[in-house]
Amino acid sequence: MTHKKYLESSQYTENFAAINHSLPGSEYDWLVKLRESAMAQFNEVGLPGPKVEEWRYSNLNLLTSGTYDAVKPDTNKNSDLEKIVQSTLLSDIDGSVLVLCDGYYNESLSTIKNEKGVSVTDLNLFIKNSPDQAQALFTKTTTNNSLKALNVAMMTGGMVLNIDKDTKLSQPIQIIHITTAYADKKAARYRNFINVGAHSEAAFIESYVGADHVSCWNHHVTDINIDEEATLEIYQFQTEGNETVHINETAIDLSKKAAFKHHSIMVGGKLSRTEIKPTLSGINASVELSGAFLARDGSSHDVFTHMKHMEPECESNQIYRGVLDSGGKSAFQGKVYVAKDAQLTNADQSNKNLILDRNAEANSKPELLIYADDVKCTHGATVGELDSEALFYLNSRGLDPVSAKALLVEAFVAEVFEDISMSSVKARYLALARNWLNVGE
Question: What pTM was estimated for this model as a whole?
Fold first, then answer.
């Protein structure tokens, strides 16, 4: 019965058998066995279908029509890459720049500032130079779903980023993921490991960019560890090309008094799914998640969060806004789990959606699983249309219909990003929301 919930995906099994011993790290028995074990786990079920509850709103049939072979590093120098990096960077942020192209860390395009206590290594180089540490990293993390298992089995690149204890970054690190035309009909499977040491403070500005009409599958899996009294804040921009399948899974483990903040906007891709899975493993840990997703013309965005409150006196807050125009589809699935011993938990989540056209679809599925008795947990979800009186007022003041809608969309989304202190970061979020309606006009 279980198999009926999943999609036929035997082509990935055949593809793995053909390339297994040519994948990076194949000279290490432990990694070969890890890949084979992960592939066996994937083979037990395959790609999740719409009857799998967590995937009911994401149609992965797109991934059954081809093999999506692993993309190899492009040996040809692409002069446009540097232009893409420069156009993506926020010029007023003077921190390190990390660039990954089609899943591979690109050292030549990256700029590492002399920040004491910060190190970054290409994943394949890390496996080669520190095999014991690499094995420990992979052993520590779990492959608790079939897609993550497939990522482990066929990963080709990624990075290991470490921030030592008692380190406070003077500037955010900008991380740019570029999808090139070379990735057409292929898959880029990243695996990133990030560690933030005790009492440290760090911020990342993470951008996913790609050209239109490149039909590829970008599969990012990131494991983040935040030690005691450390803070990590991520500002994420997803502006992939219009034919890209973008699946991004991030697992975060927080120790005592650790804090994690994640702000995101999703406007790109044909099918986009963002999974954020924080585990509050230490007392007084806190998590804030905020984001906006805007879909139209056959694009689909799915946000799935799984907040695990495992210890007492922890706090989490989630606020997401969706905007759907003709042909757009979205889903927000927010699950909050409160363990038996996690007393004095405070957990809130809110999802509001704005429908601009009746040929759009918004889905919202908040879920609370509470096993403690002294908690404060709330959730709310709404779907509505633009205020016709506000539209009429703006039109009467000389704004054309598209500009009036764009202004109201920006105002609707602005609530998500109102607490961001970096002006250039906030301005980019609001500009993407404001200009989204004009794309393709």
Answer: 0.94
